[in-house]
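Exercise (ungraded).
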Amino acid sequence: MNTRSRVRAGAVAVVFALLAAGCTGGGAGGGGVQGTPGAAGLRDPMFPKLGNGGYDVSHYALTLSYDPASGRLDGRAEITARATQDLSAFNLDLDGLTVRGATVDGAPAAVNRAGNELTLRPRDDIDAGKRFVATVTYTGVPKTITDSDGSEEGWLKTADGAVAVGEPTGSMAWFPGNHHPSDKASYDITVTVPAGLQAVSNGVLSSERKSADGRTTTSVWHAAEPMASYLATLAIGHFDTSTTTATLGRAKVPVLTAADPSVAAKSAALRAKIPEILDWEQQNFGPYPFAAAGAIVERDGDLGYALETQGRPIFPASSFEEGTLVHELAHQWYGDSVTPASWKDIWLNEGFATYGEWLYEEDFQHTPAQKNFEKAFANDDAWAFPPAAPTSSEDLFSAPVYQRGAMVLHKIRQKVGDDVFYEILSGWPAKHRYGTATTEDFTKYAESVAGEDLSDVWKVWLYGDEKPDKP
Ligand code: ARG
Ligand code: ZN
């Protein structure tokens, strides 16, 4: 779903009204209006060209085959979307790779490429409101992208395969799509790898089969709930997997973990603790939002950061410790189920997941959140900018977003008391389950639950430039 496109739907309605009144001439195509190209970006404050306008994706069916020896990925992306304007052409984001061809509703579409913008021009215009299916076939050695903060994402080669991680923009290195967090969709990810290797992705493993000649294995992963593309993952290699079931309230959720064999033994005890941690989280944050859970643990060096990939977060071995696990699992509620409407709202992910760690330490490690709050307050790095106003993409994953983001929640808690605070904490992901939301949506929501004005908290802790004299 694309929250921004809904705004434009209003403009489309105006055009229709004008047409009905005979104010403008008819256009080409099957008797419909003359379409125009969808926007090449959604004007995200951090990444203006990220995402695309004019349509809203509901489903991605990715069919991939990877050969670790050559590093080559062959892919076919089938994208089901709905036009939010009369479209003559529309863009997809794709970084690297070679496009072999594209279709829209089965008919060949013209393809044009400029940098990371792929433009598809269907034979016929697509009327506003109409559902369509675009397919893109592509090939090549996918890229590793270096972020402005120096970390690596996109497609990362490992000793025996590869991993794909994409926060904030890396997913366009392995499949074309509407790569802005505001356009969420369900996914089917089908991956073929040489026999002996495995492919682990998001959601539920719906089938795993050897080819007739025994040379390859194909796995099909199904992620039913809407997912932002930065949360899609794929890990190819050798894995020790283990499965169990978590009883979370009334839900029984399958838990599948996969660990590189060299780190399987030392990660086993903590992997086994996932059901317990999720149970504590669902008591505090509300019902677990997804049909599957788990974790992927890779070797150090295979990837540089842990990521809350939907349903199944991924970790380099040295980050696979209790606090980070609690953090990435907390993101399933904060970030994955309710997703920031734009990248400047990233504190809604990181502030909440960090506060989740503080609450966990309070409940299990005798460390009151107040202690972590004071520690964060004393950290000068946390005051570089206000958490709700990162100024560049380098800022996205830095101390003010995590530490001061968590401080904002602690200030709310101090002001409204535990009962109301926990109501806000669990009510927020429930209100925006599977959707997207802005910082302003949150501040309004918190005030409505609290029944009081919290502008002092917002002014100083969320938006303020100055560090207060005392915590
Ligand atoms: N969201 C990840 C976490 O749980 C961090 C992602 C960092 N990404 C980056 N490009 N630096 O904290
Ligand atoms: Zn995080």
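Further reading is listed at the end of the chapter. For now, observe: The longest helix spans residues 3-20. The pocket of arginine (ligand 1) is lined by residues 147, 149, 151, 153, 167, 305-308, 327-328, 331, 350, 397 (CB under 6 Å).
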